[in-house]
Structure formats: C-alpha cells, structure tokens
Amino acid sequence: MAAVATSRAFLFSHHYHSLPFFFPSFLTASRLPTLHRNNLRNPILLSTVKCLQSSSGRQNVVEILEERGLLESLTSEHLRQACSDPSLPPLKVYCGFDPTAESLHLGNLLGIIVLSWFQRCGHRPVALIGGATARVGDPSGKSLERPELDLDTLSLNTSGVSNNITRILGRISILNNYEWWKEVRLLEFLKDVGRYARVGSMIAKESGYDFLYLFQNEGINVQIGGSDQWGNITAGTELIRKILRADAAAYGLTFPLLLKSDGTKFGKSEDGAIWLSPSMLSPYKFYQYLFSVPDADVVRFLRILTFMDMDEIKQLENEMEGPGYLPNTAQRRLAEEVTRFVHGQDGLDEALKATEALRPGADTKLDWKTIQAISEDVPSCSFPYNQRSWISLLLIFQCRLVCLTANLLPGVC
Questions:
Q1: Which GO terms describe its molecular function (predicted)?
Q2: How far, CA to CA in Å, does 208 sit from each of 76, 125, 190, 214?
Q3: CATH number of the domain at 61-255, please?
Q4: Residues pairing with 254 in the sheet
Q5: How confident is the model at residue 25 (pLDDT cuts 50, 70, 90)?
Q6: Which of 41, 103, 223, 278 has the highest CB neighbour count under 10 A?
C-alpha cells in the first residue's frame, strides 16, 4: 500500500495492512502498487570502471585492494604478478558464503566487494555456497557453534543467499559445495586427503578440500576471504601443491574484517544484523545505519565499501577538516553509494524518499513496508482494525497534537 507523508511529526497506523495512515495532512490511503527494487544487474557494474594499471597495461586488482585498505595478506606475491601479466588468462576467483541465514549481512559485503573488484578488472568471480558445511554445523571450536540446519531451512537460506549475490554482482557463477561433498566417502577422503594432513585439521578446515576440488574441476586458482579465514585458505593452497604439483598456481588473498575504529564489529545494530535482503531489512533502515557512521570511521569505510575514486575520497576527507564542511556530508555519500550497490537505484530512491518524508512539510509517497520501517523513528500509535468505525478526523488531529507535544509530556506517545 502507499501513503503520503507530509510531516515528521506523527505516524498513525493500525494492524490491518491494507489501511495504513501517515498524518498529519494525509487522510486516506490510496491503493498504489508497492515499490519493488530493480532485479536487474546493478547499473554501476555496467559502466566502465577505471582500475589501476601497471606498466604492462594489465589492470592490477591487488594494487587497487592494497591502496584502498582491502588487502590483509597474500599467500604468494606471485598473485600480484599474475594480476598484471597480460600473457596470462584472467583469474577465476572464489569467495565462500555460508547459508546460515536467509540473507547475507553487512559483514559479508566485503567479500562481495572484493569479488566485484576482481570482476571490474577483467577476472571471473565465483561465489561458493557452503551447503555441506551448514548441514553438519561448525566444528571450528568457536564458543557459539553454528547450528545444524534442517533441509527445508537450508534450501530457503541457500536460495536467499544466492539471490543476494545475483542481485548485487549479476549472473556470476554460483556453486554449492554440497554437490561434491555428497559424493565423497569417508574412507576415500582419508586415503586421498588424510595422508597429506592431520585428519582433525582437515575436518576443521574442509574448505581446503573445496579449493582442491575447484582448482581441479572448475579452473579456479584464487580463494579470497576475511582475515579469520587465513588458515582455511592456506590449507587449500598447501593441499593443492601436495596432491597435484609443488608449482601449482593456486593463491589466497585475505581482506580485513569489517570493524569500527574501536575494534567492535561493524554491521550489527541494537535490533540485530544489518541484512542485505530488503525483505529482512528495508533499504531505508540500511541507509540510516550507514548514515549514522561516526566521523572517525567514515573515510575508511568510503575506501573499502564504495568504488569512489580515491582522489574524490581524499577531497572529502580534506573538506571534513575545513571550517565550511557541512556535517554528515561524507556519511550521506557513504550511505548513498553502499545502498545503491546493494539495493540498486530503486532501493536508494526508496530510502531517500523515506528520509525526505520525515522532513517537516514533505509530500512523499511511501509503501507500507517503508512506513513500518520509519515508524520506529517518529512518534506513532496504532489502533485495532475492528475499531476503525469510531476513528474520526477530530480524533486523528487530537492524536497528532498530543504527539507533537510529546517532548513536553514524556511517555504520552
């Protein structure tokens, strides 16, 4: 459903979704179609992206990642050379995503961004869904182990994660490691793989076998992941060299975890994870979370979470230190760039409309989900649908006046 927002003062709703009310000056709900995000490939990816180039003319994604603070470690400096050698074919690069929820969250976004940088520089990105891993839980020894998922939940989560990736990166190759793990027999695994590593270590780092399989069967020669995945990645490169050949061109690259300047994780709010799926977190809420980034973090996040030119980011950083800087200019740009990348232009437009609706005197059309999302940010109340008959125009404006003075009477609304 759609509604018109004209002031940030008051949101008036009820529990029956077909009749949302957003006041003060809007009186009836119109049956306009719900806004949907654009399911086409992100328009950013369709444009020409300038990458750093070496003297040979080959786009060097490793140098880009290093300049932007997205490079933590390399298993070999040969990867840097491979990225700049025009005589070599494009690399095939994969990143793993576990289907532990119906959507990826903001913490997973760095993996998608690094894949996108490889894609923009002419290489072939691949996403690996950890369907096998999710079926057996997490043997990593963490204090909070990953629960084993039933098949229906796993199927739903796998579909949701795949949709997240496709919506952002386009129709890249998406694989599921369950497809080969279901064919692996225990004794064969111990015979073929166990003799090259301690069995306990290999079970704890099953992605090492994933890299071996992908290297042999899919021609994938680079695995990327967060810095906490370094052990898994090196297990894979070592296994490839032990089983196949010592000079195998298999590489690993890690990027830093998404942390705030105080060392805490970035990507969680008081309400939980910042999901990438619009059905689990509205583009408006996503935008507002990024808009709330403190000054101490915003420049670094512009480097690692956006594809903005580094000179432009540096200019913004210099402006922040000047006397004429408008507060939150950098935060606004961060929120716009990341929301557009994740939710497309339609999602960003929806977020901006919702933000505009909270401005005094605004005249903005919103769908029901967006109204629900912004209701937490303004004084609001609701009434049961079966009591709609006694709602009068006078009562509506009386409620509005009460909420307008809520700052004088705490707890009234």
A1: ATP binding; tyrosine-tRNA ligase activity
A2: 17, 19, 14, 10
A3: 3.40.50.620
A4: 73, 225
A5: very low
A6: 223
Query: What single-letter amino acid sits at 226?
Result: G
Domain extents in the chain: 61-255, 282-377
Model pTM? 0.77
Q: Is the pLDDT of residue 184 over 50?
A: yes
pLDDT in tens, 26-73: 323 332 233 333 333 444 443 334 454 444 455 799 999 999 999 999
